[in-house]
Design brief:
Elements: H1 5-86, H2 98-103
């Protein structure tokens, strides 16, 4: 069966319309994907900044605690050693005790 001239025109019009719809839909999808990716990137950046800030705060707190603990133990060992020297104790007897003092 040979298509009539009207059918040929309708077929061409339908094909052209489909191609235009494909272009419009593609533009909408690309725009939506771009917006979704930008929004997820922004949320991920915010989460990452918060997580890094928290980790830095925790590390700083741990460092302060360790440093403070070290200084307390060091001062305790020195005061014990000086007290023993000034009180007439023998400093050589203290050497085995000092590691136990520093260990806590």
């Amino acid at each position: 069966m040979i298509p009539s001239r009207g059918e040929a025109i309708l077929k061409c019009y339908t094909k052209e319309t489909q191609q235009q719809f494909v272009g419009v839909i593609r533009g909408i999808i690309e725009s939506s994907l771009t917006q979704a990716l930008a929004m997820s990137q922004k949320q991920m950046d915010g989460w990452m900044k918060g997580a890094l800030d928290g980790a830095i705060r925790n590390a700083q707190g741990a460092l302060v605690a360790v440093t403070r603990n070290f200084w307390f133990k060091l001062l305790g060992a020195w005061s014990y050693l000086l007290w023993s020297v000034f009180a007439g104790g023998a400093p050589l007897r203290l050497w085995p005790v000092i590691p136990r003092i520093l260990a806590g």
